[in-house]
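Review this today:
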Amino acid sequence: MSPPDAILNPVVATAIAVFVGLCIGSFLNVVIHRLPKMLERGWHAQCAELRGEAPVPEPAYNLVVPRSACPACGAQITALQNVPVISWLVLGGKCASCKAPISARYPIVEILGALLAAYAIWRFGPTARGLAACVFLWALLALTMIDIDTQLLPDDITLPLLWAGLIVNLAGIFAPLKDAVIGAVAGYLSLWTIYWLFKLIRGKEGMGHGDFKLLAALGAWLGWQVLPVIVLLSSVVGAVIGITLIVFKGRDHQLPLAFGPYLAIAGAIALFFGEPLVKLILP
């Protein structure tokens, strides 16, 4: 079997997807942790500028620098301590220097990045559609975790995701371009309308603007036909998880609950099963 044929083999391609997905998952952990902090620093700098104040000099902080370090003791994490999943297991989920616990969420995100990529490549093959699906799912994973942490869906991810969907569908990879454009517009306007109706009736905001942009991005990737499925699925998932948290975790039902993760989960489901679900729900 020649090297090109080996790569096209579904089993080999899926194995490669697992490896790449683990590495991307490790990078997503950096994005999830640092991007909100980067945005916050930028907002503070803009506020200082509006007040006419000189910005306070700060060390560089982005997705590349500084090097990853233990938040408890500040010890830098070496390359061998940063191998996806394996390093966490070898270290026993603790910092090598101070033995402070390392959240299990880091390997969980890495594993999810691998599983999503593996299933996308297994389902769509090592094709443009499979690779695009991986990018789509990794972006949704990052948005989900950021929204859980901060109730924020950064424009730095949602807007590029929206444009990427339109670009991908120039070739009709997931939906005809016309359906993708309508999906983007309809996705944004549907939640925008619900937002303002809720605000007029209840006098308070019911969701963030990032939710509009995320649903617009999902519409741009998958077409307008799947939007009712996504909204229905996200509402069901949100209701189930919300009720579960209230009943078993004692969560105050008055506290706001991030809606972005449910949209992301519904979008991932629609990516793989959108067509049969559309036929089932909207015959």
Notes: The first helix runs from residue 3 to 8. The two ends are 45 Å apart (CA to CA). The mean pLDDT is 88.
